[in-house]
Amino acid sequence: MTTLNPLYQLAAEQKSADVTDWSARISWVVGLLLFIAFVYWLMRQGWKWRGRLQSGLPALATTPDDFADGEPLLTLRGRYHASTTAGRWLDRIVAHGLGTRSRVELTLTGQGLDVVRPGATDFFVPAAALREARLDKALAGKVLPEGGLLVITWAHGETLIDSGFRSDHAAEHQAWVDAVTHLTSTTEGTAR
């Protein structure tokens, strides 16, 4: 009988698992969801606030009617990543829809750069406003492999803007840098 006594005591000490307190669990889940919703609301308010700060930026130019008459130097299909203040790769510009990522179709002619963005605001950069093009790896928080981003710098009112594009075929980027550089040098020559 002495051998049964320890087993009996061991069995008597075991407890069943605690019953889950569903009200506490549901309260935590609802609290977490409210916190996430609050964070998203704050992010949206920040986006609107940034747009109000940049409200002094003039309206974007639209494509001229005679643009289709010009001979396209280059075309590109890919992604528009963002626009930032030139030289400040994290200072995203959200005014006039420039902060919205989208698909893009670029057309470069002697008149300028036509940016067509399905689902976002299209805009046109006159050739006189183009400043430079370069290959880069980061813009507005988007980081890509070295040279994976085509950045075109242009003047809009008193502001210099860097706009980032990524072609579906990254090998096209260098041709764009060369073409924009050539166009800006000939535009500067005729402006003098």
TrEMBL record:
The chain crosses the membrane at residues 26-43. It comes from Streptomyces halstedii. Keywords: Membrane, Transmembrane, Transmembrane helix. Pfam families: bPH_11. InterPro entries: PH_bac (IPR057446). Residues 58-180 form the PH domain. This is PH domain-containing protein.
